[in-house]
Amino acid sequence: MFKDIKIEANKVFWTSEDKTIALELKDVFSVSERKDTQLIEIETGKNFRQNKVYFFDSDGELVLYYDLESGTVEWSFQEYMEKKRIVVKNMKQVGFFPQEKRIFIISSCGSQELSGYDTDGKYLFRAKNPSGFEMLYFSRLRDHIVVVCDGGKNQEDKYGRFRYHFFMDINTGKLTKGGLAY
After folding, report:
1. Where are the chain's structural domains?
2. Contact predicate 31/41, CB 8 Å
3. Which among 28, 82, 87, 138 has the fewest CB atoms less than 10 Å away?
C-alpha cells in the first residue's frame, strides 16, 4: 500500500496511489507501515526516546496521536466523529487497534495499570499489573492482542528468558499468561 517510506531531516515521505505525501514533524526517528491497520506509524523524541507517536492514513491525515509527557491521546478515527481526547497521568505506552475499535493504555502511578477505551472514547476497564510482571508494550499474536510483560529474574526460565505474552480480553482487560515473547 505504502511505497518509498523515508525520513529526511524532520520530514517523512511516502507514496500511496501515485501521490507523494510529505509531513514535517520534530525529532522523527522511526517510521513504519502497520499493514494490519493500513496506517503509517511515526515515532518522535529526542535521543531516540519515544515521546510522541503519530498514526496517519495513506493520504497523510492524522488518525491518532499520543504524547507520553502530557499523557494525552487524541484521535478522530472516522470522518463522522468529532475529535476525541483522553488524558492519563503517568502514561507509559498506548496500543491502538482500530479493527477492534480499541485504545489501550499502560500507566504507572506506584503500580502499573492497564486501561481500555473504545474509539468512541468510552471507558471500558482498568486492570492491575500481572503479579510479578511489568507491562512493557502491546502487540498482536495471530488474532489476539497481547501485552508483553517482563518478569525479571523471578520469572526466568532455565535459559534466562523472562519476557512473556499475556493474552488480553479486550472487553474486561483480563490478562492470561501465554508463551515467551522475543
Report:
1. 3-129
2. yes
3. 82
